[in-house]
UniProtKB/TrEMBL annotation:
SUPFAM superfamilies: Ferritin-like. It comes from the Bacteria. InterPro entries: DUF455, Ferritin-like, Ferritin-like_SF, UCP012318. This is Ferritin-like domain-containing protein. The lineage of its organism: Bacteria, Pseudomonadati, Pseudomonadota, Betaproteobacteria, Neisseriales. PANTHER family: DUF455 DOMAIN-CONTAINING PROTEIN, SI:CH73-314G15.3. It comes from Vogesella indigofera.
Length: 278
């Protein structure tokens, strides 16, 4: 019997099995493209707050400040870095699935976009997990943190806010972080991990582009100026992880405007001015 969209997505979202979740996420995307997941909404109640998606017992979740930093000169240090990225990708599967499951007033193109993202995040997770195993480790062998899912909880009331703060902030920071990591790994001769990050980086540009598209589309539908809205949301949600180096080329490819990039470059000053009511 053919399932419908929301039970299938909910099953993937709530799966705690590290083999099953990526498989189910990819399956949802494939079945949607094949027309096998109609959007019947009577099989589940309306979306409710989801305190936590399905996740395995390990890794242990700690505060972001308690995640130890290890040097990359050792195999364990490189594995710790790969584990941290794999943990981001595992959480990103949940974030993409939740966008589909929760925001049911959005059109089919939104569903298709975020199921594609979920499937690509699943692919990324599996690639990184395989690399961990090649180094003698596995997902769960290091600690992780829960800040990514906390942003999902904080934005579960409004799809526009979700699009502003998850792909345009959290995922976009990945565009900034990956090239310097690759440079360090290449210097150590870890070409296998560099190649994996190449593929992830290219996909993530598309994910941020999807977020940019839906954020601006939703702003337009509501008669809101996107840049002013984004700046205010950064203040309202006390976003403080935008300082540091930016990958301007990747952000342009993902749809950030030149004016917005200038604002990000001077982010600390922008926040002070807005906070003062200027």
């Amino acid at each position: 019997m053919t399932s419908s969209l929301y039970p299938a997505v909910y099953q993937a979202l709530c799966s705690s099995d590290i083999d099953a979740k990526p498989r189910l996420a990819s399956q949802c995307h494939q079945q949607w493209l094949a027309g096998q997941l109609p959007r019947a909404v009577d099989a589940l109640p309306l979306p409710h707050p989801l305190p936590a998606p399905g996740r395995p017992a390990r890794p242990q979740l700690v505060s972001p400040f308690e995640v130890p930093r290890q040097g990359l000169g050792s195999v364990a240090g490189r594995a710790g870095l790969i584990h941290a990225i794999a943990h981001i990708e595992f959480n990103a599967i949940n974030l993409a699935l939740d966008a589909v499951w929760r925001f049911r007033d959005m059109p089919d193109s939104f569903v298709e976009d975020w199921l594609r993202v979920a499937a690509e995040e699943a692919k990324h997770f599996n690639m990184l997990r395989e690399r961990l195993q090649q180094l003698g480790f596995d997902y769960g062998d290091f600690v992780g943190h829960n800040s990514l899912w906390q942003m999902a909880v904080d934005t579960d009331h409004d799809v526009m806010v979700r699009m502003a703060l998850v792909p345009r902030v959290l995922e976009a920071r990945g565009l900034d972080a990956v090239p310097p990591i690759q440079k360090k790994l290449a210097a150590l001769g870890d070409t296998a991990t560099v190649a994996i990050l190449d593929q992830i980086f290219e996909d993530e540009i598309g994910h941020v582009q999807i977020g940019n598209y839906w954020f601006t589309t939703l702003c337009d539908a509501r008669g809101i100026e996107p840049l002013a809205c984004f700046r205010q949301l950064l203040i309202d949600y006390e976003v403080d992880n935008l300082r540091g180096a930016y990958n301007w080329e990747a952000r342009r490819a993902a749809g950030f405007s030149e004016f917005e990039l200038a604002m990000l470059e001077d982010f600390a000053v922008t926040r002070r001015r807005l906070s003062a009511g200027a």
